[in-house]
User: Fold this.
Amino acid sequence: MRIGINIDGVLTDVGKFSLDYFSKFCVLNGIDYKIGESDYDEATTFGIDKTYGDMFWGQHLDFYAKHEPARPFASEVIKKLKNDGNEIYIVTARWLSNREDKVGANMRKTVKKWLSKNKICYDKLVFCKAKNERKIDEILGYNIDVMIEDNPANIMELSKFVKIICYDTSYNKKCNGGGVIRCFSWYDIYKNISMMKGEQK
Assistant:
């Protein structure tokens, strides 16, 4: 089975990082905010102009990309999935990684170092080319069987074509459907993928 794995929100808890660091960013910059219903976009969650989201990530992306730890047991479970005979594809639409310049090259290098540092094994690392974080071309192009994703837009689009494991977050609670399996931890993911493989036999 070919398993696609997203980085931000699946291998990391980007939602928790955003809440912690974005609230600090707002307070230190005198930005009035009111946290409402959780959204994939931080500015929407905080009820402020989206330009602040770009400003925030402009200041924090490098730190996040280098130092945010992997979720508990991600490395352990991915190694088990690979040892079970699955192919592992890391599929990311990480901000800036699609740029064909020094900035993009540096982000791609940072991603590779982070994966190595966190002992995330894989067969192929795929950087998505779309500027709107869509992954459909890469998922279909590499014949991914199941994609582990957190982005609500990607979950709903990709579920029409492949099985989706939705890594449970506060901002994707409304993602449901026949092709969507909600999981709450990396060992929960392992259990569900093992069940999928058993159904294929």
Residues 55 and 170 are 23 Å apart (CA to CA).
